[in-house]
Amino acid sequence: MSEVFDPSQFSNEPLPDIGEWEDWQEDVPTPLEAGTYDAIISEQRDVKQLSNGYLQATLDFRAIGGLHDGRSVATFVRVTNQPKPFGNKASQMTDILRGAGLDGAAPQSNADYVRLLKLVADQQMRIGTRMEWRAFCTPCFDAKAAELTGATAGDAARAALKLNKAHDKEARAAGTKATNMKKFLELSGGRPTYSCAECGGEVQARAEIRNFFKAS
Ligand SMILES: [Zn+2]
Q: What is the pTM of this model?
């Protein structure tokens, strides 16, 4: 039976206009779509002790392996070692360590945490990440704040909001336009922007890591 793809049936003559392969990675859409990626800590930007005694680290994450190897997943990602739940957030620092496979004894001090985070970063240990895009519309937030507090000026409304947790939450929800990449139509300076359906304003979107887990 003859092969369909049989090179011996075709000429070995060089084609007239084919040179080097072009840098095809240039054609991959940037930035990455929301989704799950194996990543490494690519930048240790900052780590500090907060007034409540817990740590806050600021890190960048880069995809490793697969089609998206080397591309930025998220930058300026803030994580803490504050036990969860606090507010609506998770204690992601612990999840990073466990995701990287350091699931032995739990760190007992801030120094432990910093030492282990540094190990994960320096050794380029793989961590599973789930990234989502978030766009926060300040005009929509301010409008809801004014509506809830009765204060018209932005600053006064924000100050009044701080006194009422339920209102603060509601205003933040009004400002948060959590959407997928398909709604971010334009790139402005390398960052995706989002046109707010409610106020028409242009909002800059940020990649945020929602969860850390074991790499695939
Ligand atoms: Zn808006």
A: 0.73
